[in-house]
């Protein structure tokens, strides 16, 4: 926080073409100019008062079902009898994502490193819901189902996955260095025709030496600069299944929460795997650098007079329009940016407000 303020001060007193940018607010950001209130992780979410692109206030500060939270560890949940019946567990099956050189994107959004795919992806993620549904049946219904309830499942389709450092969820008060979020959409419930969301979180712990091989392809393509999108090279693969614990150790904690970034919308079914995966020191360092602070200067000092001019050469193109708009002050390609400090992109834990938190083991 003090570092952010210091950098802001440096910006203020220097000329605009040699300025240190806070991650998330730099010239390079992919954020659309009229995409709602700008935000960053500088105060880890404690200043997220704003509106979305349609003028609707965010739920971040007013909500009472916000994420992330400090999760009790498995023993505590077990002792409380706070369990999901075994037969009502969510099931995950993710086939390998194959790159053809132009269908898998690794995006530095200005807030996170996110992976999206442009080819259809036949993942099989099944969430349990009551067999008899009405318009009020939520995607979170499994949290209050009893052993004898009649159940069925709905499909959750993965949309993208991204990472946070440090972790957003705590377990028994403890942070991990990294957390993976796989974001899914559910549409086949009467209340979800416009889309309900479910996120699966995976925590990572540090190893001294070996890189996690299942992160390698993503890490190799990771754009260091905000606003940049790299394609996974042809023949590269993402074995998403291997970024989760093995199927036999998918013990998880589940609860009703929210998006952990603005607009902090609620009603999400969260799953957080209790068994952490591994990340090497080198991989963690690269991620912290990608979400770090940067010093940016115009490649061509004569262009300083018109920093807001768009050259029209902005790359890359993207199928989702929200990524197409360049940030207001200029074309990122006109700037050279060097990372000057590690960054973070996590939200602080939120109050529970009496919500049910359940263990599935
Ligand atoms: C790669 O996949 C994308 C999305 O499915 C497709 O549009 C494109 O034509 C493919 N490119 C090649 C070289 O096969
Ligand atoms: C960079 O500066 C040179 C010389 O002043 C000028 O001719 C050129 O148009 C500039 N290029 C850009 C991209 O502004
Ligand atoms: Zn996330």
Automatic annotation (TrEMBL):
Its cofactor is Zn(2+). The keyword Lyase applies. It catalyses: hydrogencarbonate + H(+) = CO2 + H2O. SMART domains: Carb_anhydrase (SM01057). The keyword Glycosyltransferase does not apply. InterPro entries: Alpha_CA_prokaryot-like (IPR041891), CA_dom (IPR001148), CA_dom_sf (IPR036398), Carbonic_anhydrase_a-class (IPR023561), Carbonic_anhydrase_a-class_CS (IPR018338). Gene3D superfamilies: Alpha carbonic anhydrase (3.10.200.10). GO terms for molecular function: carbonate dehydratase activity; zinc ion binding. Residues 37-326 form the Alpha-carbonic anhydrase domain. Residues 304-314 have a biased composition (Polar residues). Residues 304-329 are annotated as: Disordered. Residues 1-18 form the signal peptide. Coiled coil: none annotated. It comes from the Eukaryota. Keywords: Lyase, Metal-binding, Signal, Zinc. Its EC number is 4.2.1.1. PANTHER family: CARBONIC ANHYDRASE (PTHR18952). Reversible hydration of carbon dioxide. Belongs to the alpha-carbonic anhydrase family. This is Carbonic anhydrase. It comes from Volvox carteri f. nagariensis. The lineage of its organism: Eukaryota, Viridiplantae, Chlorophyta, core chlorophytes, Chlorophyceae.
